[in-house]
Amino acid sequence: MCAKCDPSCLSCVGGGVYDCTECGDAYNLEGVVAPSRCLCASYAYPDPDESNCSLCIPPCAECTGSGWFDCTACYPNAYLRPDGSCECNIGYYMNPDDRSECLPCHPTCEACDGPSTRDCISCKHGAYLTLQRSCECYVGPTHTFIPNPDAR
Fold this sequence. Notes:
mainly beta
């Protein structure tokens, strides 16, 4: 009689959790020798409500749970904060349509929250932030400090 594979297995040699020869989506085979058991891949976490592995929510590339603060690694151009969340690096903003992607700011912005010239949060050196949130180059007289050795 054929045994039904464990739900984590894609194929198996028996019905037990350690009888997997190939794993389903979001799973990896433990060790290098089959049969073995399937464990959640690094981009997924064990979900007790679903009794299987669920994918991490972007911007988490790797995680331990379903929350925004359960990240253990982030996607490219982002960093892991001490609270377990991911944030885009300076000079990048999170793509609102695909939270696994940090896109570059407009070249005039140092930091931003969108792609346009009016999405700047701060400006690169030598520019200032306008009320319209764009960066403008400083134009005006320059001042040079000349030390006066006789000053007291």
